[in-house]
């Protein structure tokens, strides 16, 4: 199967090229890029004049493990959706189940620190399921510090997952914020020895919780410096909130000193998590300058009225997904904080996309358009289109070349050491994987809102995954499930 994309504005962050050219795709690989390419016999030609052609977006932080959710991400320009912050366990089962079900996008998982600890400390057997993982987050049994024997046991479990092809270690430290900092250092040492990254939801900042065992932003910088591990700071916007400038300054200094810390952000002032998460406890909300009314239940749409109701919901259903509003996007000062997180040098765009839930209990659908009433966070459907609207179209803070560098090239480079196959992603040179997005630069925008979160983004005209059309002329191809696994090299 061959496709020639003719006459588009080709943007390749791998070489820095930004100009009108043709792109030839053959059997899942880009075989040529240049002006006036000859049309091979039997080749399909797409006229993409006036459109922008670039490498598909690589989402390092997506909890979408379903066809429905990945279709929303496809309409947002994503070609690879990886769950690296939380991960899944056992890793072999996670990859096997995704392959059996089929995926529109490429997929992959890290080794789950939370699941390994829950298995050893609380006797909870992991089942490679995102819903079970959310339920575990509110369980206090795994959130304590470990004995020397327990530490050795769950580190060994993580090492076994890495040996089976996990893409590094996902560390939900913010969900067990009282654990001994020496345990986090032990994880970083394991990652350094194995040559894999960590992906961390950091613990609270000292401004929010003066009693924290370690400041979240300082801790990840120190661990990277002491061990030499490559350490990825997840959603710096949501974990830093009003203290974003102090956090970005600390991370900038650590990187200047040689620490291998990468950073990601998304363009929303509200995050999503399980309502039983430690940082949604009423006292901790007050420390953040927030209140129970900052919490909205995802499935019902209920905005929590008071502390009594919040405690009730946390007790009765700690795994229930919710939205936590941490910045007011209508406030120019707070909107500026969000902008600075995205604009931070080399910050990667990542969605923290959530599964789509329906009130009848279903968690997936093969219908398209999706059935009405689906609940998720709007970033599942709109992260990349909203970022492009804000940073390229409206503010001019980024060129298209810089946008593709942040959304495609840099995230692929985070994976280079653990997954050599990633070296063929995030750029458009001959020999690269044919994961391509073709978008309308004047129309690209998000459509999802907090109250209508499953509206697909607008402006992605074509999307190719492994050379297979998943979006054609702005329409999703429901017959396309070309996603392939992205895995670490088994040891």
TrEMBL record:
<dbReference type="InterPro" id="IPR011059">
    <property type="entry name" value="Metal-dep_hydrolase_composite"/>
</dbReference>
<dbReference type="Pfam" id="PF07969">
    <property type="entry name" value="Amidohydro_3"/>
</dbReference>
<protein>
    <submittedName>
        <fullName>D-glutamate deacylase</fullName>
    </submittedName>
</protein>
<dbReference type="GO" id="GO:0016811">
    <property type="term" value="F:hydrolase activity, acting on carbon-nitrogen (but not peptide) bonds, in linear amides"/>
</dbReference>
<dbReference type="InterPro" id="IPR013108">
    <property type="entry name" value="Amidohydro_3"/>
</dbReference>
<dbReference type="InterPro" id="IPR032466">
    <property type="entry name" value="Metal_Hydrolase"/>
</dbReference>
<dbReference type="InterPro" id="IPR023100">
    <property type="entry name" value="D-aminoacylase_insert_dom_sf"/>
</dbReference>
<feature type="domain" description="Amidohydrolase 3">
    <location>
        <begin position="45"/>
        <end position="471"/>
    </location>
</feature>
<dbReference type="InterPro" id="IPR050378">
    <property type="entry name" value="Metallo-dep_Hydrolases_sf"/>
</dbReference>
